[in-house]
Structure formats: structure tokens, C-alpha cells
Design brief:
280 residues, alpha+beta, 13-stranded antiparallel sheet, 5 helices, 13 strands, disordered N terminus
Amino acid sequence: MVHAAARTAAKEDATLLVRETVYNELNDHKQHGYWRYWVDAHGPDGTQVEEQVETADGPVGRVLLRNGQRLDAEGEQLEEAKLEELRNSPAEQASKRQAHREDEDRVSRILSLLPDAFVFQDAGMENGVRHLRYTPNAKYAAHTIEAKVFHQLSGDLWIDTRAKRMRQLEGHLNDNVDLGFGVLGRVNKGGWFRMVRRPVAPGEWKTERLEMHMSGRALLFKTIAHETSEVRSGFEQVPPAMTMAQGLEVLEQSVAEREAAWDAGRISPAAWRPERPGGQ
């Protein structure tokens, strides 16, 4: 009886910690600062480094390197044309703004599921970070396709107990997830994701690493293939709530300064790359 009561108290304590952490993450989502950083992305077609600047309407970015090399003339023209279209096209700006809001809303919805959709078990403390293992909560009823897929994950969550902020979240699918009894599609078992976050300023946390590897089949046999492997670094604060046009000015000035350093031989593009955690 005593052991059962202790286990129940530990479970409630872990769930409360997750709930408080999710509250902080969602609150940060509404009141966060704005940053410039590099995105070092790895994919089936190789690697690329993109510089991004956050604005009130979403990040604007420009590719700097592909496979460790500067862009050729054609690549430079494509990047310049992309930014020029964004600067001059209200429709393109509206599309980017809408996509950003949808991404923000999706992240908020998924984070909100954590305290109720899973059962948490304490796996100990690691350098001030509490390690929790989670499995689907059988009592939780998922009402959307997004929630149904997320609810089938199991994995690990690390929380900075002092700040009550999410340090790392990992999950994997142990079984196939059929959507609409298999009629709408299926997400294959074996898919997994990892998100690592770190503080970049007092009270400010950013995603440092994001990996997602999911596959399956959607309606009418369309293939689902989501492969993401990104590391973000070099965080520098920029003026808050800039317009997209203002963000483009900051981005282009920063890119011009870096390219001038490359041209002058002060930095070698082949040797330069954003730092990756653990020297990876």
C-alpha cells in the first residue's frame, strides 16, 4: 500500500512538472525575443548552411553554403531572386506569414498534449536536469489526426528543473498508426524525432537541434517522407518584432559582411561552418 501510494505521488509530481514546463514553453512562444542564427541542415541531397533572421511574420533566410562550398553564380542568382520576390510580392509575404502562424499553432497544440496524453515515469536526475520516460496514456482520447499520431509516441523528456524549461524531447513510434482505419493513410512504425533546446539569454530558450524521420502513406497512396536534421547556432539577438522588409535588410547586411570576409580571405568557406553540439 505504501509503495503504491509513493508511485502515485511520484507520477503526479512528474505530471505537474511537465504541466508547469509546458506552460512556460507556451508562454515563451507568445513573448519570445527575436534572433539571427545559422541553420546547418543535413539531408539526402547533402548539406547546406542557411542564415535566418526572425521577424514578427516568421523567419527570412538565405543559403550561404552547399556541401561546404559557396554557391556558384546560378545559386547566388536563385537566392537573390527568392529574396527579391519576397520583398516585392504581397502574396508571397502573406503566404509566408500564414505558414509561420500555422507552424506556431501546430507547435502549441502538440506541446499542450504532453501533460494529458502521456504517463510519465521518473528516470532520475542528470546534472540538474530531470529525466522522465513517457508512454501513451490509455485514458486519453485523441480527437484529431495530428493528436492521434503524437499520442502513439513513447520516449524520453529532459527538463531543467531550475528554469522549468524543456531541455530535450525524444520520441519513437513502436507501431504503425492507421489514419481513418487505414483509409486515410498510415504512419510507419520505427519513425522517430529528437528536439534539443538550450538557453541563449536569461529566460530565452531556442531549439538547437531538430531531427525527424517519419515515413508512411497518405490518401490515394501519396508517400509520406519527412526527413529533417538541423542544428542551429550562432544566436544573436535582433530588434524585436521587425517587419519582413526590416528582417530582409538585417539579413542582407549580415550576408554581405560574411561574403566580404570570404572574398578578403579572412575566413575560408571550406573551413567555416556553424559550431555543432559536441563537435559533431
